[in-house]
User: Fold these one by one.
Assistant:
Number 1:
Amino acid sequence: MEQIVKYVAVTLGGIAGWLIGEFKDTFPLLTVAIIFILYDAWSAYQLDRRVHKKYPTKVKRKQAHFTSFAFGKVVRETIPKRLIAIILAFIAERYVFIHFDTHASYIVTGAICLEQALSILENWVSCPLDDGNDNRFWRALRRILIDKTERHFDITLDEYKENDEL
């Protein structure tokens, strides 16, 4: 039994070493994507705090909090899907597009970072506090980007906009 465990451990170690050696060029790309995704999760938490500060009576929860469910969803779903896309693009550029000088993994990573950057900007411009720091740039972005404030309520903001409550 000890021999079997030893052989399995050596085999798994060899496979892990091969995978690390094979995909070592993707590690910087994976790291950049993870940083963007985690910062997007943090900016969503900051938005939740602003919503609770601006509309304390309209939100069902008493205070903003960093929910383990939301962060768990980021870790379980968002990060693995994005990392798999980068690795698949790397495999395609290395083994499929061998006659072309393509950088598919860089393009996919760039698209992921652009998607996350837009989400971060949406979180920044949503639910501004009336503290006098609202300049033209942020007002212009607010007209272009999606307002994520209503995601923190169980209703849409349309009924409040009609009554000028917001």
Note: The two ends are 69 Å apart (CA to CA).
Number 2:
Amino acid sequence: MKYIAIIDGQQVEIDFQTRPGGVEANIGGRVYVVEAAAVEAGVFWFNWDNRSVEIAITSAGDGYSVAVAGHQMTVEMMDTRAALKKAAQHGHDGVVELKAPMPGKIVKLLVVEGAEVNANQGILVMEAMKMQNEIKAPKKGIVKKIAVQEGLAVNAGDLLAAVE
């Protein structure tokens, strides 16, 4: 499953698969195979690379407060679709990357690189699960990059376009 984690304000992509007795996680491009177990409600034990780590997690507003080895951090987790929706609802400075919310196929490009777009203007059409979805600009700006072409199959989390 692919997720976006916002850890103390930093966005990190996480893709993980459960395995018997643990988890295999790709975090920011690095792969970790971790033995895991729930100790009690909100407390988890992980063994990674012969290191034992206990993590305490409590709800905190829209996210979680996570304590690891005496360090406290705020973490917000969301799937790629929720992250895309959240990005569209907030003003952004700089470049905003639009990523595929699920596996699919690019049906039609609606703009070209360098085009000026308004917030919520269609950038491309993607077909997923036999439905066509218009991927829209999260803000007013200029399309800096179109990373796909018509007919291309994409995976969840793949870069589609970037708007500045």
Note: The chain has two domains: 2-79, 91-163.
Number 3:
Amino acid sequence: MLTPTVRRTWAPAGCTPLIRHHFTNDRISVIAGISVSPTRGRLGLLGMFFWDNIAQDGVVVFLHEVLRHPRGHVFALLDNSNIHKGFPLRASCRKFPRLHLEYFPAYAPELNPEEGI
């Protein structure tokens, strides 16, 4: 959500600060991935922004964009969210045989290095 968060502010004693903001329900959703070069040992960060919630089609668009860059096999490690499963992703795996999907355990955000981004 694009609403401001204020944790602490300074003001003279006895004067409550006023923070004026026009609240809207706008949001930005981000899908990201970390690439590892096996030969060079370098890390890369890939990401895509969406102005709404990400659905299965957004995941497919992101994976197709990822497939444009490396030449070899691409292993995508995904959590078990519903947007990471379904017909559009299975169809992408059939269309691009070098794309391989693997899933983290049911609830293990500590295993996903992308969660900290």
Note: The beta strands are 29-36, 43-50, 74-78, 99-103.
Number 4:
Amino acid sequence: MPPTPRSPGPAGSELPRETAGVIAPPPVFPLAVIALSELLRWLSPLPLLSPDHAWRWVLVAALFGVAVALAGGALLTLRRARTPVEPWKPTRAVVMDGPYALSRNPIYVAFLAMQLAYAWARPNMWGMLLLPLTMALLHWGVIVREERYLTKRFGAAYASYARCVRRWL
């Protein structure tokens, strides 16, 4: 068997090039489901709220703001740890601080919050009803693969982290 290709890691160490092998870039899943919800809204509208509810926009802004802050904090935490956010690049470290202390997948939680904010903003009940589809696609297309990869790559360190921090919230 040929040796595993390696890339330089921190302080000159070598890291294998294996990756999680996700089936698509993670943002594709919520975007595809939002597109599907819009198609369904066009074919069979299911309004979430009457457009005249002013508080709806407060909820939309708050939820979207929390989602952006969560995703931004997660990206900044990954950058500080010098590990890539892209799941098709080798992970350099198990990140356990910042938003990763609350959820193993804060960026995916942010995607769901953004999809929910979008559904409320439209208003489109399909966007809410299809939230479990987005979760399933992220779970089976990304998270399961990432967890398998991280367990193989980091062993006990990742297993311990996974026991202490929830997958979603």
Note: Confidence is low (pLDDT under 50) at residues 1-15.
